[in-house]
Amino acid sequence: MNSPFPVPSLPESYDNDMSGHLHLANAQLVLTDRVVTGAVKIEQGIINEITEGEGVPDGAVDCQGDLVLPGLVELHTDNVERHIEPRPEVDWPHLPALIAHDAELASVGITTVFDAMRVGSIHSGKGRYIDYARKLADELLAARAEGLFKISHFLHLRAEICSETLLEELAAFGPEDRVGIVSLMDHTPGQRQFCDLTALKTYVAKKRGMNNAEFEEHVENLLSLQKRFGAKHEAGAVKEANRLGSVLASHDDTTKEQVVISASNGVGFAEFPTTVEAAEACRDQGIAVMMGAPNLIRGGSHSGNVAAEDLAKADLLDIVSSDYVPSALLLSAFQLARIWDDMPRAISTVTRNPAKAARLSDRGALEVGLRGDVLRVRPVGQTPLLRGVWSQGHKVG
């Protein structure tokens, strides 16, 4: 691919030490099954040694008892869209937006991200959505090829069933685009996330500046689109995900019947199921359950759906996503550690489990042979203070 950016290649990291070598010692290492005092050594970007003990060898960083854990893996974030459209109808220059997005994620401990982009446009009415994903993906992939990013980026295509152009937009992507996830989105009013139309009106009308008549028109348009294209778009999106080699995700499953359909489509994980019934059905079908960090931290869903904490206490929570607040991801893991009284299990919801769900076998844990993506964290009361972020052994935050 020819880069649209007339810039020279940058080195792999902005840090002065370009070697990918790192030795963190006298730390509390959060392993997959326990926390131990020890050291982790990274060479050429890969973890090559983990030892136990309080010693600080020459050249090692003395972590003074701070926690060291794997870099966070984010499967679903709207953050890139927030940067390219900071306010409704404001199109921000994309390259600086992408660089700012990347730096923000690095600053909060996210070292792998699947950048969510909507596919499926609506070209008429007040609630219109314009095709942007292919162009933005090209810009993101070019920036990555130029070495402009601090962390690892993959694509996540949000396949909007209630749209006019979903299948055409999906057809523009190929296996070479590194589309890691395709999620099936059905935002038809009156079901799934927005069973309560009042919640939908609060969200959409405020975001898009709709009056009552425009909102009613928007609802009728979405209902019409679902009736005309819903079944065709869902089947087509499943087929396209298979063509792209992507993990398939469901979104806002509410009933057992919806989860059974998700399972028949080959869904690997469920984004934000809205009820206990749906989460239990996911467990029965072997589908991993993802919930939003803002839901967990706020103590409930902004749409009035099931609370993430309730699913955690019922042993129905596997993965956490920052959703619309990047800094919430690390904070949510520490909240889960208090709920479960199990730090390794909690950290796995933002590292090992999402990596596994996305079929990334080279990261997500402090293990010899995996990528040297690590964080240094000091708990301050109930707040994790991030003291260092390394991607493949390079300091990025």
Count of the domains:
2
The low-confidence parts are: 1-18
Extended strand count: 16
Share of residues in helices: 25-40%
Query: Residue-averaged pLDDT, rounded?
Result: 88
Which oligomerization state do the chains in this entry correspond to?
single chain
The end-to-end distance, rounded to whole angstroms, is 29 Å
Provide the CATH topology of the largest domain.
TIM Barrel
CATH architecture of the largest domain: Alpha-Beta Barrel
H/E element sequence: EEEEEEHHEHEHEHHEHEHEHHEHHHEEE
What is the assigned CATH homologous superfamily of the largest domain? Metal-dependent hydrolases
Distinct helical segment count: 13
Radius of gyration: 21 Å
Main CATH class of the largest domain = Alpha Beta
Report on the biggest sheet: 8 strands, mixed
CA-based shape:
globular
Strand content: 15-25%
The structural class is alpha/beta
